[in-house]
Amino acid sequence: MNHSAASGNFTRAANLNPGKDDVVNDTVWFQALMVFVAGFSGVFCSLLLLMLSIKAMRLLSGKAKEAPKTAQKGGQVNV
Amino acid sequence: MFENFPIVNQVILNTGFFSLQIGHVIMWLISFLFIYLAIRKGFEPLLLVPIGFGILLANLPLAPVMGFSQQGGEAHRNLIQWFYDFGVANELIPCLIFMGVGALTDFGPMIANPKTLILGAAAQLGVYISFFAAILFGFSIKEAASIGIIGGADGPTCIYLTAIMAPHLLGANALAAYSYMAMVPLIQPPIMRLLTTEAERKIRMKQVRTVTKQEKIIFPLLGTVVICLIVPPAAPLMGMLFLGNLFRESGVVQRLSHAAQNELLNIVTIFLGVSVGATMNAEVFLKPQPIFIFILGIVAFSFSTAGGIIMAKIMNLFLKEKINPLIGSAGVSAVPMAARVSQVEGQKADKHNFLLMHAMGPNVAGVIGTAVAAGLFLTMLR
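YS: structure for the whole thing
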């Protein structure tokens, strides 16, 4: 198959070797499937890790400071 | 006509009239349409005005604005070719725009509710669906990646990836991305209503907590390290985004923050718009490709919207405090328009429901998600 969309030429190349054409096609689709799976799961993993990092940051900074204040309000100071 | 006056004859023959073709006139009409939409309808005027004018300039026959001219036997870049080569082709301008975007963005709602990052990731669904669809349409795998990223609804990322992967599609891709971003209020609501029930649209969410200044300062540093370690090719975009955000949040470099979000952003927007517009000459643009790209662009936007909403519904199966699925659609990174659409749709179901701040979380998460998706395409296909 001629993937020459860049030049606006969408005509298929003369199919002199149909078997080879199918192999090329399969390779393209397999690569596309890999990109889909790896790409989409990669986006999820990256943002999931960022989410966990933000939660860790909150635990280490903001929340740790706020906790005693909340406890004092209720009169349950554990310090 | 003026055979006895060769100089006059030469001047007349070198006017644009003798080289004018129907394609040029069609491109002028397209240019006028974009300028009209920008001025009268307010569709992304900051970009559509320079893009529209760039299209006009590039389609003036014999005018040395784009491409190269022969001077003394040597090829010299024309005016806009300079902007294009040094700003767009070498990926400088999209990164500088990201610095400005970072300086303008408040990541507070996302830091307050980090779960919204998952919605930002799910809203990249359209990127991969349209990537597949583009291959089906006969585009090469690199071209498909550059078309798919339109679904992220992030102009600079789309231009960044296209300039590397398929520079010949730059004009059509950028135009599709910005046109659909302007049409977010038209594209998203029907999909939002189709995928949610009345009861779901009425879900009220707890008020977003206040994020400390310390968290806001640490976040850009944390984000840079985490994202750039996982996806190094996303570093130019993410690095500039978080640098701009650090300018903003640090509070000690207000001049730099102000420059990044005003002067710098405005200047590079001019160069970007004109350069992108000037890539659209009649010979390149009046082919079936841009039509396919526009079709694939709307597929991408629709699936991205659906991806965010469906993920919000899935998350609700496990969460004690339910989230309103309407904020999922804001995961497409058209900031802040997609978040505003969530707010408007939410208020149609319950006029006392305020979703804007909740929707800003997935909205800014979508910016990061799209840049990560672009980085992953570069990792796998470059």
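YS: worth flagging: Chain B touches chain A through 51 residues (CB under 8 Å).
IM: good catch. Also The mean pLDDT of chain B is 92.
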